[in-house]
Specification:
single chain, mainly alpha
Length: about 525
């Protein structure tokens, strides 16, 4: 086997081991080590290449940016259990309830707000389903719409800052986390508007699918209701501003006063304060949050180690060149490249977690996108929009799994009268996946949806650049003070002749010195 044929073989083996279901981190490490020793045996690179692997892995893990992951995870775990979701869904549901589709609007808005302060999908889907699904079923909402809006609104957190995947994407693409967060705000808002527009259209076409809540079912109204709404929104807004604003992750804020790690630590303190305000802060809550943080962080670290072992060997056998030649030859230039990559990522998300895609696939695609002149912030946010769908489609749509489990629990507890069919959950997710794909298309063809919130780059016109050299004192015009009375200042031509004569005289002196020495 020739070395140029080994990179495609490694890529095919990568796809195979990802499909067999064995833990990806260990599969990647095993494939990378086996391929590396085979390459040494074939003489493609020396044994010292693999000897650098421990230092390489240690260098990746010593990246300070990765410390932001446990901080943001812990913050989200605390906020999942502090009662904020319950209060916001209850108040928003009563505020929008009388309107057709009002419960759907409240789920979408609360999903967006919770996504901006928690950053975790699992807790958000579970919390919203526990509270809103019985209410939506009770007032006659279509089952497929109810399950779809709950699952899709939970996945918004994947895109809304401070999403964990945006931290990982920024690290892998070598870009600022603050800029990645700024770029994600445009698509996040567009996603909410698309979901709301679909709900509005459904309320007109099929009003019986999203009926309004009867006024007699409202337990609060007037100023008391607004106070309850603001009690959930204002503390959340303060926490969002403190965390994202301090690291330059909000539109209009150009200066960062904290690193992502410091901002995450500050977010943890804010989450503890919110939990205390809602009287939910306890040792049990802290223990559960720490255990959840430990598990997710350990998973990320092992995936990172395995992907690093594989990618180091893959690059050693010129895999990066193979990927570059394959993708840069696609028709359509940048647009063709982005379309093919997003189709590939969409189908890959059927089998891989978003962390696995970011650590395994992105190192192959990022350099190619950079060489093609694609803004890497735009590229990263685009992939993040696409990876939202990994939570919504089978066979590993985790948001649907969470919803399935919660629906069974609610039926067993008697909170809903009839069981929710798996058929309704999966068919109900289809319109929302299509809306997420519509957003992918918008971001591809309208990059300003990402870049409009980024700081404007200072563009320099090279043709207008002027380089001014300081004049030699010997060539400077003779000052008027040195002129004799009645003597005119020398012209530019005379000055040139004088300078040339001085140079000739100097050269003549040097020649005379050499003659004397001889």
């Amino acid at each position: 086997m020739q070395m140029e044929n080994f990179a495609p073989f490694m890529f095919g083996a990568l796809v195979f081991i990802m499909l067999i279901g064995f833990p990806v981190a260990f599969s990647l490490a095993a494939l990378g080590l086996a391929s590396g020793f085979f390459a040494i045996e074939m003489g493609w690179f020396p044994p010292s290449f693999m000897a650098n692997l421990p230092l390489n892995v240690f260098g990746i893990l010593s990246n300070d940016l990765l410390l932001a992951i446990p901080f943001f995870t812990f913050m989200g775990a605390i906020l999942e259990k502090c009662g904020l979701a319950e209060d916001m869904l209850d108040s928003m549901g009563q505020l929008f309830g009388p309107v057709r589709g009002g419960l759907g609007y409240s789920v979408i808005i609360v999903g967006f707000i919770l996504g901006a302060i928690t950053g975790t999908v699992a807790g958000q889907v579970i919390a919203m389903a526990l509270i809103s699904l019985p209410v939506m079923i009770r007032y006659g909402y279509n089952m497929r719409y109810a399950t779809g809006v709950l699952a899709a609104s939970g996945t918004i957190t994947q895109l809304v800052p401070p999403s964990l995947i945006l931290v990982v994407l920024a690290d892998q693409l070598g870009r600022s986390v603050g800029d990645m967060y700024k770029g994600a705000w445009g698509p996040s808002i567009l996603q909410v508007l698309i979901f709301a527009l679909y709900t509005f259209a459904l309320s007109i076409v099929k009003p019986h699918h999203v009926p309004g809540v009867p006024k007699e079912a409202r337990t609060m109204s007037g100023w008391a209701l607004w106070v309850k709404c603001l009690r959930g929104i204002i503390p959340s807004a303060i926490l969002i501003f403190a965390v994202l604003g301090s690291m330059g992750g909000l539109p209009g804020i150009d200066t960062a006063i904290a690193t992502p790690t410091e901002a995450g630590a500050m977010g943890c303190v804010g989450a503890l304060v919110l939990a205390a305000i809602h009287r939910r802060l306890s040792l049990q809550l802290l223990w559960e949050a720490m255990v959840g943080t430990m598990r997710l962080t350990a998973m990320v670290v092992f995936i990172l180690i395995g992907s690093r072992v594989f990618s180091m060997v893959f690059q050693g056998v010129d895999g990066a060149k193979w990927v570059e030649h394959m993708l840069t030859g696609l028709p359509g230039g940048q647009t063709g490249f982005l379309i093919v990559v997003n189709i590939f990522i969409f189908f890959l998300a059927f089998f891989l977690d978003f962390f696995e895609i970011a650590f395994i696939i992105l190192p192959m695609l990022g350099p190619v996108a950079d060489k093609m002149g694609i803004d890497l912030i735009w590229f990263g946010v685009l992939l993040c929009v696409n990876m939202q769908t990994s939570f919504m489609h089978p066979p590993f749509g985790f948001a649907l799994f969470y919803l399935r489990g919660i629906a069974d629990t609610l039926f067993k507890e008697g909170r809903i009268e009839k069981p929710v069919k798996s058929n309704d959950i999966y068919l109900g997710s289809i319109p929302w996946v299509l809306m997420q794909l519509i957003l992918v298309v918008i971001v591809i063809f309208v990059p300003q949806s990402v870049t409009m919130f980024l700081d404007k780059e200072q563009k320099i016109d090279i043709d207008k650049v002027k380089i001014e050299m300081p004049e030699d004192p010997a060539d400077a015009p003779k000052p008027d003070a040195d002129l004799k009375p009645g003597e005119a200042a020398p012209s530019a031509a005379d000055q040139e002749k004088a300078a040339a004569k001085a140079e000739d005289d100097e050269q003549k002196k040097i020649d005379d010195l050499f003659k004397e020495k001889k």
